[in-house]
Amino acid sequence: MSKGPSLVNVREHFDTTHARWIQRGMYWDRDAPDAKDEWFGKQCMTCCYYVPLSGLFAGDWGACSNAHSPLDGTVRFEHDGCEAYNENEDYWNDT
User: Does a structural domain hold residue 86?
Assistant: First the structure.
């Protein structure tokens, strides 16, 4: 089965997808009652479990791969945060 053309570097596709995901609330709403102030300095983009998407999406969006996070397996905005944040850069070297 052949793979079709990729849209990861098509600016119009990125812009409309980004706007749609923001509109759907696929990001950390800092005004939400469950948002924690400490998450401001512990954002997904610096968590060792954050896996950036590719192409134009890599700058803003990635997937959470932390089994201990309620966000595991979801696409997250890079400035999101959660209680399972981990920036231990030695994590993968300890295994």
Answer: yes
